[in-house]
Amino acid sequence: MKRFFKYIIWRIAVLILVLILLDILFTSIYSKKKGIRNKIEYVFQNSKKNYDYIFLGSSRVEYHIDTELIDADNNTRSLNMGVSGQDLTETFLLLKLLIYKSFKAKKYFIQLDESDFSLVKEKSFIGASYFMPYVDNNEVKNHLEKYDDDFILDTKAPFYRYMNYGYKIGYRELLLKLNNKNRRVSFYIGLKPVLKDNNASYLFKEKYNNDLLNEIKSFAKEENVALVFFTSPYYNPQKTVKFKKFAKQNNINQYIDSIKKVEYFKDSDHLNYLGARIFTEMLIRDFNLKY
Amino acid sequence: MLFNSFDFLVFLPTVFVLYWFVFKKRQNQNILVLIASYVFYGWWDWRFLILIFISTIVDYSIGVLLDKQKKNNRRKYLLWVSLSFNLGLLGFFKYFNFFIDNWIEAWSSIGVVMHESSLNIILPVGISFYTFQTLSYSIDVYKNKLKPTKNIVAFASFVSFFPQLVAGPIERATNLLPQFYKKRTFNYDLAISGVKLILWGLFKKVVIADNCAIYVNEIFDNYQGQSSLTLILGAVYFAFQIYGDFSGYSDIAIGTSRLFGFNLMRNFNYPYFSRDIAEFWRRWHISLSTWFRDYVYIPLGGSRGSKWMQIRNVFVIFLVSGFWHGANWTFVIWGGLNALFFLPLLLTNKNRKHINISAQNSLLPSFKEFLQMVLTFCLTTFAWIFFRANSVNDAIAYILKLFSSQNLFHIDYLSGIERYSFEIAFLIPILCFFEWIYRKRETPFEGRYKNVNEAVILILLLIFGQFTNHSSFIYFQF
Predict the structure, then answer these.
(1) Active-site choice (B285, B325, B354, B470)
(2) Domain end position, chosen among B151, B185, B219
(3) Three-state DSSP class for residue A78
(4) Which of A108, A248, B182, B235 has its CA 20 to 30 A from that of A51?
């Protein structure tokens, strides 16, 4: 048995060594190699930029806010910082990073998903996870400590973050980064497919918690940042009465049922590029985004 | 509890330490195995435990009664009780809705409308495996091949033995049960071979199967819009997904058992190096194939009797085997196709031509052997399309699209997952390379380069493994 334990301990030691080496390798490539593969890298590789409008949120910003349309024939500069899969805790971190890196904007628009207000919210960074290579950054570390249930593993266990969030920051992303496959200039992505199912719907849950929203509001007040909260459209939303009431109480501009036709959706919670144009026009009109 | 989960990473060492350092006596070790197995199984849903407990009690009691009963008629009656109970359990939980739906559909096809009355039945994980295991006990006791046990703890541990409970290998009572009677002493070589099997199994599951699964799901769910080459790749990826998934699970199960001093039967023996379908079935899911051979095929007459009888027996065994996999016509057709592929070998008496692994005394196969392997792989992959498709119509549409697509040599960008499948293009060859070089051994972690191979596989596992995006083991649903 002693021999067996020696064998196992020796293997575990090799495993830990390999994990440390891989962690160093991945982290140094992500943090040192120039080129922008995602919006978080854009923030880390830039600073002191001026914009008129910056839009933050999930895929329902990334695919819905046509910033080129806002800036067309105008002198405005707007930035789509929506990240697919990102939830409100991650959006909050991105907001903090933008502010600390001196990204100035007349208005920050924060899109809120209904799921951001779940009563029982898992504290996780599974959504975007592009922050993970930067856990040594103080802003990221402090934010994770407060909002990430896996904080210890994510920040202390070597290579854990690249295994746990492999789908977003694993070998695939690393190889693309090494191969200089940079992201296209525009941060807005218009989706082409059209929702085929007329009977699709989005069912609201009817119970909400606004703690995190209040924390974001307090932060914005301290930093003297103008925030506008809004929700993107859903296809055929059901049981929306309580959410609308909640939105009104919390100063959230809600557009959940502002677009109704099926041909403007890609699926029940995403607009296609035609729907995105209509929705962006609505925001331009309602918030007077054009000079 | 999944083998590739954090829970199991804590569970296994805990049970291991308790087993060898706290519960040192044989009976106590059996009690620990039993408790651990129930915890392991109850991790999914504690209600499943009721079923396995009842199954254990019924078959244990039948074993005891068979031992006391000398009259043939009564012994036969007891066997029938066991068969009816186990197959009834399986039939109800696995096939009830299938039969009801088909019954309603059959009537509606002649204009009689019946109301839907499917029940919301949860399929208990691994039910097909442990019912077959307990059945083998009753049958072997009935045939006097095995002395019935009076040790209920040993029997319950045999039925629920956690390493192989949910997806096999389906152990024979004659092999596994006696191991519960023996005093266990820690065997270093056995334990090390177990650790190596676990590592190799994890590689096959987490690197090969789970990476293939990402593309397979995307291609099969959206086959209408894909090119021929993408559809071919989808089928090939599924062939490796199911192999990596199931053989990986089996390796981990066998490896885990060895840590506790148990030897389970080998379940896979490099099946994709087979030179014909008969050889493939001697190397694929060996515990199920031999189960059907011993308890269905041979009682039906096996390869004795006229050719027609032999053909009938082959079709019975393959169709039943297909149906065992799931309550869907896709599995039955998959079984039927394999029977059809087997038929020419049976008719020409060549079904036992390839017994040893190919290229027995050389590094590379002959050209003929290579072609035979490619052809066998193509046939099995074609049949896998039915196995993977959601319905027979989907499978047929997939195959038709495969031959009708205009862009034969175009590999599609998979928009749903925003990627090409480039990493599979070198992960599968890596698997094939190691398997080919070490085809006469259990894992690549033997021989001169064992440490180098271990390091390579470990690094590949860490970098390419799908640790959060992993799919559940395919065979859990059977």
Answers:
(1) B325
(2) B185
(3) strand
(4) A248
